[in-house]
Amino acid sequence: MPAGNHTGGALVEVPEHLLQRSRDRRKDLGASTGDEPAAEAPASETSAAPAVAEAQAPAAATGPSLPELPDLEPEPELQPEPVKPWVQAALTRKKIPVWAVPVLIFLPFWAIIFAGTLESPERDSEIIALGREVYEGNGGCAGCHGAEGGGGIGPALVGGEVLNAFVDWRDHVIWVVNGSPPAGQVYNDEGEISTAGMPSNGEKLSAREILAVVYFERVELGGAAEADLHDLEELFEDEEVVPEGLSFDIGGTFGSTLNNLLAEAGIGAS
Ligand code: HEC
């Protein structure tokens, strides 16, 4: 012990009986002293220690030259802390109830199945998604034709109605761009008479938005087969011919403009 060299003089002064008392105390408490070998401890205690203890004990009792040291009782620390009721409850509680085990095993599968149902089975393509957005949102179509296309101020579009009104999807596009003609004019393929109730959208909506909302009305509301609208979808997807910022002109020449765009995109409209 290198430290002992400095304080050796002071340490010698510790009375042997105090050291012995400390040893005895430790022995009584059954605490094994970790630093001394097990074989050495009993040897010193059985041979030399008792003699010293007998000789010193009376002296310590009779001559209390030192002030009575506060008895450092280590017992309270050694006794195990009383276990709190809530801790006890947590320790004795069964962690997972038996019935929960199959539930927990099934949980990941259920999560996968559930995630699968979140995606609508029909594919909401880009054109349908944009069309729905226009119909319900900035196009304001739902306000007059009903949220589900059932009709209102404007005629119903569901159940093939809109397909009969405009047999050719290009006429449908032209209609949405221009809106109603003056009241009293025949406006659709069924020979119906305009009330001039439908606003024009050529300035409000972009060309892509108009193509999308027509696609949406014919497929989602009218019930047309997507295959019948292949040309329309192809035109929508040709972003060189129908770029983001393009809008359709309102007016009588629009029909030929639309056909020109189709020709440009290399699509032979049916
Ligand atoms: C302010 C009300 C109003 C709004 C908004 C409106 N429409 Fe119309 N729509 C009408 C009316 C009214 C008619 C019938 C024509 C008429 O009487 O002038 C009509 C007719 C139609 C028709 C022909 C239906 C048929 O059976 O003849 C289509 C297709 C159509 N609208 C699509 C649209 C689309 C697409 C939008 C949104 C971009 C839209 N409408 C927004 C009022 C409206």
3D architecture notes:
By secondary structure, the protein is mainly alpha-helical. The chain has a domain of 139 residues: Cytochrome Bc1 Complex, Chain D, domain 2, CATH 1.10.760. 53% of the residues lie in helices and 0% in strands. It contains 14 helices and no strands. The N and C termini lie far apart (104 Å). The N terminus is likely disordered. Heme C (HEC) binds next to α9, α10, α11 and α12.
- Kindly state the mean pLDDT as a whole number? 81
- N-to-C CA distance: 104 Å
**Whole-angstrom Rg:** 48 Å
Give the cofactors and ligands: heme C
Looking at how many chains there are and whether they match, the oligomeric state comes to single chain
CATH level 1 class label of the domain at 126-264: Mainly Alpha
Query: Could you give a short account of the major beta sheet?
Result: none
CATH topology description of the domain at 126-264: Cytochrome Bc1 Complex, Chain D, domain 2
Task: Choose one word for the global shape.
Answer: rod-shaped
Count of beta strands: 0
Order of helices and strands: HHHHHHHHHHHHHH
Instruction: Label the structural class.
Output: mainly alpha
The name of the CATH architecture of the domain at 126-264 is: Orthogonal Bundle
Q: What's the helix count? A: 14
| Uncertain stretches | 1-9, 34-55, 57-61
Helix content: 40-55%
How large is the share of residues in beta strands? under 5%
